[in-house]
Amino acid sequence: MEIFHTAEVLSRDEIAHVQSRRLARTVKRAAKSPFYKARLAQTGVDPDSITSVDDISRLPLTTKDDLRESYPFGMLADEHRELVRLHASSGTTGSPTVVYHTDNDLRTWADLMARCMFMAGIRKDDVFQNMAGYGLFTGGLGIHYGAERLGCLTIPAGAGNTARQLKLIRDFNVTALHIIPSYALYLAGVVAEQGMDPRDLPPRIALIGAEPHSEEARRRIEEMLGLKAFNSYGLSEMNGPGVAFECEHQDGMHLWEDSYIAEILNPETLEPVAEGEVGELVMTTLTREAMPLLRYRTRDLTRFIPGECACGRTHRRIDRIAGRADDMLIIKGVNIYPMQIEQVLLAVPEVAQNYQIVLHREGFIDQLTVRVEIKEEFFVEDMRALGSIQKRIAGLLRNELLVTPRIELVEAKSLPTSDGKASRVVDMRDKQG
What we know:
The strands form five sheets. The chain has a nine-stranded mixed β-sheet, sandwiched between helices. Strands 10-11-12-15 form a four-stranded antiparallel β-sheet. With about 425 residues, the protein is of the alpha/beta class. Helix 4 packs across helix 5 (about 140-150). The radius of gyration is 22 Å and the shape is globular. The chain contains eleven helices and 21 strands. This is Phenylacetate-coenzyme A ligase. It is an enzyme of class 6 (ligase).
């Protein structure tokens, strides 16, 4: 097994020692910020009393609302003159969430990202095309600096402009990509539409993330683009990409425990779930200087995968994100996550790359309609054939969801697409009054 950093194979005792030492330091640093100085005093936690990773449960939880309410400088634990960059959410409603970085923070982030990319099989002699948006979004610059840290020739292509993306891939013999899953599916559809053989395209690895996606989506991306697609996890509050990544076995994402403490809690009781059970991922930074975060509620639902990984790395693995705790839909008393719908749809051969979940209300009852793009060769005038597909999809979704949604079949490329994260759910209930 090749590794990028010796930290990848620390023993569990060594990981616990590193976490304890860094947690004690992190809490003291966090207490320098106006927010945590007040919050720790309010909860009666003396920063000097935190000496072990076992003390983590004594610390207060932090939420996205805390970050918004502390905007712009309330979470800052370092002097302004030490800051070299900030990233922020779009802030389309209320205050955005802002994350600050020192020079050392950026170096640590780049090292973590390079570690992830190396684990997925990318090497110095690869040509890497970054197809994510740059700017305040962390995915662009985070991945970019990691690729350069690894030593790759890095192409900052940015998002969108599919014709240009394909030209860059062919002209510069690009061997590795970073791409949002929904855009990867769209790109794959363009490749198929243009009659290109994916085996003639040079990329062998795609890094996919930034939005939840199913195993079925990954399989389609791999098959239609002729490469291996590696799942990743990150969030701006924890730097961005580089928090957890799949190794060559694609069996869960190794979460770098020398830089983060991860807990999985019941989102209702906030107590730890049993080993292997799904709950909300709660994260604590261990190496950040400018803006350490303690027990941040990500709202992302996942689980720890029990046992050791065949790759030999010792850091625990989390499963792919099943959705967000606040993305759950309740239809006719049944809890439904959008990812459940995707995994069913993309396993149906006739289904194209895009779909839309529409919530609406009839009388006082919430209803669920799924609009599904059908591949061109199956979208025919024979209503019996289309009716058969519609009935089959409805039955498969009923078996998965325990409710029967309405199914609308539409032509391929007729639903809205985006260069950024896909917006799969359209809620019409408030508009109906």
